[in-house]
Structures are given as C-alpha cells and as structure tokens.
TrEMBL record:
GO terms for biological process: tRNA 5'-leader removal. The chain crosses the membrane at residues 6-26. InterPro entries: Pop5/Rpp14/Rnp2-like (IPR002759), Rnp2-like_sf (IPR038085). It comes from Ignisphaera aggregans. The keyword Repressor does not apply. Signal peptide: none annotated. This is RNase P component 2. Keywords: Membrane, Transmembrane, Transmembrane helix, tRNA processing. It holds the Pfam family RNase_P_Rpp14. GO terms for cellular component: ribonuclease P complex.
Length: 157
C-alpha cells in the first residue's frame, strides 16, 4: 500500500466519521435552533410596538329581561374575549366600569394597543350574530379617551 492510497483511505474514513457525527448531532442542533426561533417569535409577538392606550366606550343595551350588573359584566367580557381570540385577549384588557340599569347604559374601559378599541367595537357590533349575550344587543354609542366626557352624556339620558 502506497502513501497516496493510505491518505485516500484515511480521508474516506474521516469523511464517514464526520457524517456519522453530523447525523448524530443534527437532531439536537435542529431542536435547539427550532427553540430559538420559537422564542424569537414569541418575543416579537409580545414586544410592545405601540403605546398602550386607554379608551372608554359608552354602550346601550337592548335587553328583553333586566340584567344584574355582575352577570351582564361577565357575559360582555366573555363575549368580547371569545370574539377577539387568544392572541388579542392578552393584548387587550376589557372591563365594565359602570352600569346604569335605568337607562341601560354601560361604560366599558379598553386598555391595550390602539387596535384593541377597534376590535372591541367590532365585537360589540357583531356579538348578536354569535348570540352569546342571549337576549341582549349592545349598541356602541360613543368612544372617548376621558371618562368624564362619557359620564356627562351618560348621566343626562
């Protein structure tokens, strides 16, 4: 056996060993790279790109039967959250802060990105299609950044 054939056999054995090592470590590397990509995607989704805003929505309810404040508040929040979906549920915070049973009006506070207000208004306008509020229909009347403006209009009617 001459030196050239010995070198070629050595190179062949070395390349086979490197392929075996690669085949053994490739699933681990793939798993770690996939985890890094998922972490990066989650951090990109949870990163706040926009300033968080707080808006108030004045809503009038047309209900066949009278509703208790707590019952109506829970039904409204669950209806809107089911409409928004999983990702927007974490970005948008919705809370019924006051309800006047005589005029059947409520003030809903929406906190989150500016798009949250749009999605909440859309959910309030379309919730009768899913019929989650039962016999109630919510009609958004006005949106404002200050609760005092809505309270003035809210207390008049």
């Amino acid at each position: 056996m001459d030196v050239e054939s010995f070198i070629s056999w050595g190179a062949l054995i070395l390349s086979i060993l490197s392929m075996a090592i690669l085949a053994f470590t490739l699933p681990r590397i793939h798993k770690q790279v996939r985890q890094l990509i998922e972490e990066f995607a989650i951090s990109m989704l949870t990163r706040r790109k926009y300033r968080r805003v707080k808006r108030y929505i004045l809503v009038k309810f047309l209900c066949i039967d009278e509703e208790d404040y707590n019952v109506l508040s829970n039904r409204i929040k669950s209806s809107i959250y089911s409409f928004l979906g999983h990702m927007l549920r974490h970005k948008c915070s919705i809370e019924v802060i006051s309800y006047k049973q005589a005029s059947r009006r409520a003030i809903i506070r929406v906190r989150g990105e500016a798009i949250c207000v749009t999605y909440t208004l859309l959910a309030l306008s379309m919730q009768h299609l899913k019929n989650e509020l039962g016999s109630c229909i919510a009609i958004p009347i006005r949106t404002s950044g200050l609760i005092s403006r809505l309270r003035r209009k809210y207390l008049k009617a």
